[in-house]
Amino acid sequence: MEIFWKRVQVIWSIAVDLCFQRFYSRHLPSSPTDLLKLLHVSNSNNHNHSKQFSDLTIIVTGATSGIGLHTAREFAMAGAHVVMACRNITAANNIAIKWREEVDNDKMLNIEVMELDLLSLSSVRSFAEAWMQRALPLDLLINNAGIYKPGEPQTFSKDGVELQMQVNHIAPSLLTMLLLPSLLRASSPRIVSVSSIAHREATIELESWNSKVEQDKFSGFLTYGSSKLVQLMFLKTLADKVMQQKENADFKCIAVHPGGVGTNIDPMAYIAASTGLMFTPAEASEDVNESLYNGFGYYSYDCKPDRISPLAYDTDACCMVWQKTMEILRIDNNYVLHLLGNN
Fold first, then answer.
1. Beta bridge partners of residue 190, listed in sequence order
2. Residue 56, C-beta contacts closer than 8 angstroms, at least 6 positions apart
3. Is 181 in contact with 132 (CB distance < 8 Å)?
4. What are 264-308's pLDDT values in tens digits?
5. Rounded to whole angstroms, how far apart are CA atoms 191 and 58?
């Protein structure tokens, strides 16, 4: 019964949000291209963000479909060096070829494809190792890839972690930690994580991350919200740790709720998108791009700061999430402190 009422709370929050998202986002530019121009203009007035897009290096996970695809495309078309971090590299290469065919002959898109499977922590480590060998600065990491398994029983990856928790939190956290040295080489590094309003009604169920729980006590629907909550808490803790060591550092972690979006993460979303209530992936990518340089926080689809779960303000709870995550990743709790001490 408890799971039932939690589910009702989440569904109600999402339904209310869905009904009003187009109204509250009506002030935004009509296309991601226009939004990128605005972002460029606003950055040019700040010496810390005066880089041309051609100077930016951006990694986008899950860039072969949905929000990730449109986000990667807009940055590539704007001239950025875009790395499509994807499980299906054949599809990604075909997409890159198509994008190159869309532009004038005198314009060269700086796109590359690298293999990354978030269902495998060894794949994440291999990706990070290959990237770190270049010793290049990384300006922006967009942790977009995610999965949603609402009606399925608790299932574990080969790493022993519940599937949604691994793809939505554990693997992105590992990727972030391993790429942190590269991010810190950039003048204004940003980490953006695609979040969800579902995190607000979620709870922290640490025991279900990598341990079997009774079937009637597990809900894939609620676990999705929990995975988004703990990822937000992890990012918030990471930003706190960096800023404690480097108070003047222009380093920001941002969680973005793109609104209800018709993507392949949820087949039913395609049907709902046809009603006009839900955003298309192209529309949702506008929100992510707009929020890149707005500072640390949680942003909603209207590109404005929004409220987050009270648990994200609980220092002890955030500490538990951090410790549990680092334990699974087999990374020392003081990794960030040691890393910053050597910079």
1. 140, 252
2. 75, 80, 81, 139, 140
3. yes
4. 444 444 333 333 433 343 443 444 443 333 336 777 656 667 778
5. 10
Q: What is the mean pLDDT of the chain?
A: 78
Q: How far apart are CA 310 and CA 259, in angstroms?
A: 20
Give the residue among 324, 327, 333, 317 at the shortest CA–CA distance from 206. 324
Can you give the pTM of this predicted structure? 0.79
Residue 215 has pLDDT above 80, yes or no: yes
Q: What is the pLDDT of residues 54-108, one digit of tens each?
A: 889 999 999 998 888 988 998 999 899 999 999 999 999 999 999 999 988 767 8
Token pair of 33, please? 């291209």
Per the listing, tokens 């549990």 go with 324
Catalytic residue list? 224
Mean pLDDT across the stretch 190-208?
87
> Where do the DSSP E strands lie in the chain?
57-61, 81-86, 111-115, 140-143, 190-194, 252-256, 297-299
DSSP code string of 200-265: GG----GGGTSS---GGG--HHHHHHHHHHHHHHHHHHHHHHHHHH-TT---EEEEE---SB--TT
Hey, what are 218's tokens?
Answer: 């597990």
Query: Which tokens hold the place of 278?
Result: 């839900």
Residue 21 token pair: 């998202």
Residue recorded with tokens 């550092």: 249
Instruction: For the beta carbon of residue 304, count every other beta carbon within 10 angstroms.
Output: 14
Residue 301 pLDDT: 59
CA 303/CA 289 separation, integer angstroms: 9
Residue 9 corresponds to which tokens in the numbers above? Answer: 């709370």
Q: Does residue 26 surpass a pLDDT of 80? A: no
Read off the amino acid at residue 164: Q
Residue 46 CA, distance from chain mean position: 25
